[in-house]
Amino acid sequence: xxxxxxxxxxxxxxxxxxxxxxxxxxxxxxxxxxxxxxxxxxxxxxxxxxxxxxxxxxxxxxxxxxxxxxxxxxxxxxxxxxxxxxxxxxxxxxxxxxxxxxxxxxxxxxxxxxxxxxxxxxxxxxxxxxxxxxxxxxxxxxxxxxxxxxxxxxxxxxxxxxxxxxxxxxxxxxxxxxxxxxxxxxxxxxxxxxxxxxxxxxxxxxxxxxxxxxxxxxxxxxxxxxxxxxxxxxxxxxxxxxxxxxxxxxxxxxxxxxxxxxxxxxxxxxxxxxxxxxxxxxxxxxxxxxxxxxxxxxxxxxxxxxxxxxxxxxxxxxxxxxxxxxxxxxxxxxxxxxxxxxxxxxxxxxxxxxxxxxxxxxxxxxxxxxxxxxxxxxxxxxxxxxxxxxxxxxxxxxxxxxxxxxxxxxxx
Length: 412
Ligand code: GLO
Ligand code: MG
Ligand code: MG
Fold this sequence. Notes:
By secondary structure, the protein is of the alpha/beta class. It has helices at 6-20, 26-30, 38-42, 59-69, 78-81, 90-106, 132-152, 174-199, 224-231, 248-253, 258-267, 295-307, 326-353, 355-366, 376-383, 388-402; strands spanning 34-37, 73-77, 109-114, 156-159, 165-166, 205-208, 218-219, 242-244, 274-275, 314-315.
């Protein structure tokens, strides 16, 4: 093949995208409660060892592009859209007004707001630092975000306390820090109750998000399970207002089974929001788009969620790879992520009603019919053949994933 001149590269990408097929229309995509973060689309490819590879993108463009693709919900950190120094000042209302207008013009809804408590120098010792003024500032920031959320019509607020921890031990007393962190959340919930009453709106659902590593070396609330115990620790004044926003990769990162972590959130009644992406076990937060690494695991996750009535929000918290251009972010990265998600979601529906899986599961639950439960040998013998169905069901899930259940074979 001859070198591809720069001015022909975008049309090549578009042509090959069309050749891929398997895309849904924007109308179909909008039927799912999929949310697009401002920060994901605006991510410029930078990291500790990486210079940016893309140009900055503002909220007006992100909202327009999400609308074109068919991503019906948008979410943001406060500082993704409002410079830190402008927060709480006149300029804030101006920007919030412009965001509201852009959302309306494009038929999008703001679903969630979140406070950036990890990037700015003020968070060097975490939002629950020893100095009372840092904590007072943190509480004010959280309350200000709640206000922005109400102004934009959001239903959720997310908290990722990734800087709640330390690099070196000794100075930080963990119980005190957790208490201080709870005070920030309490301030946010109390401000929310007051504002919601004033505006005649429901209070927000406040969702905590855990990540086991990064950016601190040691993290005080590293997993969704740690957060569940924090929520019920007695430190929160409104534990009923606080739930979870698990992130698929964050659970995988520490070596957990994401599906089991989600199950624990479900039985606690705290699965309220879900960051969808992909990556690898025991690696850093690579934030790859949903289904590109572990599609089979994702299919199983969605079977669990569908069968328990969780239908979103599904938040596209991933990072388009540094190799993808500004054009590619909206031409390739977001549409393909959404379409993989929808396909996996619909496949999960197929798996739930699949007659083979249905009969196999029912048979496993029926057991072998031993009357005397004290007779261990009889119990083992009665289930021996049935237990092969575990492997058969796993095989069937892969068949559904790769289309083999429709009779796909290779002619040899
Ligand atoms: C970082 C987190 C981050 C959060 C966001 C929402 O690893 O995943 O993207 O989801 O700050 O609060
Ligand atoms: Mg992540
Ligand atoms: Mg996340």
